[in-house]
């Protein structure tokens, strides 16, 4: 449900998002007037594939699964959105009138719903804003291309370790206890890995002494070493 207006901490987070970084105070405030918080329960649908695009979103807390349904009833996870990330903006910029994926909360989540038309009209009101916005989006595009390379050019162990490291703060170098907040099968789908391949890769990393496992916890035994292995592509 749409339950309340934005508070100061959420507004501060939004200002750091690439969707808003290029805006001046007036432009930002104009868009914020048309934003609302939406609290989702686990497994609650946010929008459905092929439904009309009315909003773009920023995930303040929780986890959101973006997926496509196939004709035979299977689902393919396109992305698992983590807190601090926007989603659906690419569809808006592409001019599509409909969402190409469905989205569902993987756990209780707080989402900022941003009126798509109001946001787009604000961009159209300023050439300088659009140019600045292109700079931020180009950085996002480079990141997405790197993610695509990881999923097409590297093995399962590399993808898994890289995914784990993306959940670790940059200032951490030693051991790290990573609590998986989403099911392993969904992580596997996100990384384009079969669940059985995911399990075998975890066992291989364990045997190499790189990780320990307990329930939904993955202990990265030496974050610095893992980062080096990823950088050298030696996993």
Individual helix count: 9
SSE order, one letter for each helix or strand:
EHHEEEEEEHEEHHHEHHEEH
Strand content: 25-35%
Rg for CA atoms: 19 Å
Assign the CATH architecture of the largest domain. Sandwich
| Biggest sheet descriptor | 5 strands, antiparallel
Strands of the widest sheet, in order across it, are 1-2-9-4-7
The helix content is 40-55%
Helix- and strand-based class? alpha+beta
Describe the structure in your own words:
This protein is α+β, with helices and mostly antiparallel strands and 235 residues long. The protein folds into two domains: 140 residues, Jelly Rolls (Sandwich); 79 residues, Orthogonal Bundle (Arc Repressor Mutant, subunit A), CATH 1.10.10. Helices cover 41% and strands 26% of the residues. It is built from nine helices and twelve strands. The strands form three sheets. Strands 1-2-9-4-7 form a five-stranded antiparallel β-sheet. A hairpin with a 2-residue loop joins strand 11 and strand 12. Helix 6 crosses helix 9. The mean pLDDT is 89.
């Amino acid at each position: 449900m749409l339950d309340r207006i934005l508070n100061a901490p959420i507004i501060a987070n939004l200002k750091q998002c690439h969707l808003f970084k290029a805006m001046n105070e007036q432009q930002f405030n104009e868009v914020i007037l048309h934003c609302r918080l939406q609290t989702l329960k686990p497994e609650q649908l946010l929008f459905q594939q092929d439904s009309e695009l009315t909003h773009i979103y920023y995930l303040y807390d929780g986890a959101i699964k973006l997926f496509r349904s196939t004709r035979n009833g299977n689902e393919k996870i396109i992305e698992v959105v983590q807190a601090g990330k926007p989603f659906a903006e690419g569809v808006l910029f592409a001019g599509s009138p409909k969402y190409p994926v469905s989205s569902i909360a993987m756990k209780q989540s707080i989402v900022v719903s941003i009126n798509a038309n109001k946001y787009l009209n604000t961009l159209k009101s300023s050439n300088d804003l659009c140019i600045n916005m292109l700079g931020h989006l180009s950085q996002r595009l480079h990141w997405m291309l790197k993610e695509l390379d990881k999923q097409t050019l590297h093995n399962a162990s590399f993808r898994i370790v890289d995914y784990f490291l993306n959940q670790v703060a940059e200032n951490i170098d030693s051991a790290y206890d990573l609590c998986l907040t989403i099911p392993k099968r969904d992580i596997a789908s996100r990384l384009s890995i079969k669940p059985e391949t995911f399990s075998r890769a975890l066992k291989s990393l364990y045997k190499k002494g790189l990780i320990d496992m307990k329930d939904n916890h993955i202990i990265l035994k030496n974050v610095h070493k893992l980062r080096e292995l990823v950088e050298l592509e030696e996993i």
